[in-house]
Amino acid sequence: MDCIFCKIVAGEFGTELLGENEHAISFRDINPQAKIHILVVPKAHTSDVSKLDDPDTLTGLFELIRKVSSEQTDGQFRLQFNTGEREGQSVFHTHAHILSQGAA
Ligand code: AMP
Ligand code: ZN
Which residues span the domain enclosing 25? Predict the structure, then answer.
């Protein structure tokens, strides 16, 4: 499957990770829309958050969101899952955006 985030998960681009656990990775967005703009991505491929129903993956994803947001922001941030092309999704591998104007 030709999925850019699967390739990042596989380490094909040498992307610098901000965090990782058994189920998810985190890295900076290449085209930041805020002072802090981080993506948190489940390792297992699903096309968008509406398809993400595996309890272990959900737990791992949110544990990493909590860890990275506490380490990289001042505790105030927006958490966004764009779902569907009309609503702004451009990469069809589930990911959360952490957006913040305040660094830790
Ligand atoms: P979305 O529009 O919600 O699907 O978000 C996809 C995000 O992935 C966009 O904000 C892109 O800037 C970002 N992005 C695409 N390719 C990369 C990459 N290789 N490394 C980091 N971020 C990326
Ligand atoms: Zn993928």
Answer: 4-100
